[in-house]
């Protein structure tokens, strides 16, 4: 049991939230391959994006301890399991590894990684605190986790230009829909912590409706762009977003998010079978860690 505390430094990077990022990275990579016919090794970028996003998630927790405590989640820092100084050092190290690795592979990738970190810093850190500003928080999150991650995947095979920017829009909208719905269960704690997310600003009803609209619009764009490996999983997800908007129930809102990620991940895994292994090991490993360390059943499929 005591030895598991060292794994806190791994799980503070929030690996359970990596699949949406990895999935969009792999779909951007695949879309680039279909477009250019070029295919490079994506595994190193897969690892480097984990370092980059992990560093951003740690920064977010450093400056979000109050609302995390009120929402009874992410207790590594809010309950003192990891020291703030250790978290800072880990965040800096992870970013440095991602930054150096990306620039070694290509200059363009390096600049995309720097842009990703800048968006993450603006979202989480003073004096900007975009996470506390409804529109800026939404834009920085969806640009960083949607369009930018798609473009990083694209850049592995081919240089970024106007076409991939257009192709990234459905992913921007999809991440926007997921982001909005993930803010809704935390509305009460965020209000008490004076963290004004777009979910807090709009309220559950309007936010869930906007989220469903984003999915619908992303479907239309994907169909127009002939991005069928996005279109079909989004089509399967759409009824669950509509249901969440109609019922406004927490369990329906959470289910819409989980299924959207699951359906897209299945498509990404169909092109990269090793990704299924990563997801399965990650899920089982996380369940084991949280059960043994905290007596919790997390994550769950329901």
CATH class: Mainly Alpha
Overall residue-averaged pLDDT value: 90
Q: What would you call the shape?
A: globular
CATH topology: Farnesyl Diphosphate Synthase
Taking the sheet with the most strands, its summary is: none
What is the H/E order?
A: HHHHHHHHHHHHHHH
Q: Give the terminus-to-terminus CA distance.
A: 27 Å
DSSP strand count = 0
Coarse structural class: mainly alpha
Q: Tell me the number of structural domains.
A: 1
DSSP helical segment count = 15
The radius of gyration over CA amounts to: 18 Å
Enumerate the spans where pLDDT stays under 50 for 5 or more consecutive residues.
none
User: Roughly what fraction of the amino acids lie in strands?
Assistant: under 5%
State the share of residues found in helices, binned by percent: over 70%
């Amino acid at each position: 049991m005591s030895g598991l505390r060292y794994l806190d430094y791994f799980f503070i990077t929030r690996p359970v939230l990596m699949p949406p990022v990895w999935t969009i990275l792999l779909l951007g990579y695949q879309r680039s391959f279909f477009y250019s016919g070029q295919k490079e090794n994506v595994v190193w970028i897969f690892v480097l994006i984990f370092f980059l996003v992990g560093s951003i998630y740690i920064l977010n927790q450093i400056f979000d301890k109050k609302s995390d405590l009120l929402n009874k989640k992410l207790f590594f820092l809010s309950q003192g399991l990891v020291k703030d100084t250790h978290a800072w050092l880990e965040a800096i190290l992870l970013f440095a590894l991602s930054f150096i690795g990306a620039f070694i592979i290509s200059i363009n990738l390096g600049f995309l990684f720097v842009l990703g970190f800048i968006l993450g810093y603006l979202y989480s850190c003073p004096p900007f605190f975009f996470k506390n500003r409804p529109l800026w928080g939404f834009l920085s999150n969806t640009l960083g986790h949607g369009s930018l991650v798609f473009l990083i995947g694209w850049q592995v095979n081919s240089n970024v230009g106007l076409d991939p920017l257009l192709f990234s829009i459905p992913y921007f909208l999809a991440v926007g829909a997921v982001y909005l719905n993930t803010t809704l269960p935390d509305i009460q704690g965020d209000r008490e912590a004076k963290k004004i997310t777009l979910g807090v600003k709009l309220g559950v009803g309007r936010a869930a409706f906007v989220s469903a609209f984003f999915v619908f619009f992303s479907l239309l764009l994907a169909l127009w762009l002939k991005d069928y490996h996005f279109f079909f999983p989004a089509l399967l997800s759409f009824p669950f977003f509509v249901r969440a908007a109609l019922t406004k129930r927490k369990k329906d809102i959470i289910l819409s998010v989980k299924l959207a990620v699951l359906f897209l991940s299945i498509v990404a895994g169909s092109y990269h079978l090793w990704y299924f292994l990563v997801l399965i090991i990650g899920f089982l490993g996380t369940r084991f860690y949280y059960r043994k360390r905290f007596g919790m059943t997390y994550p769950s499929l329901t």
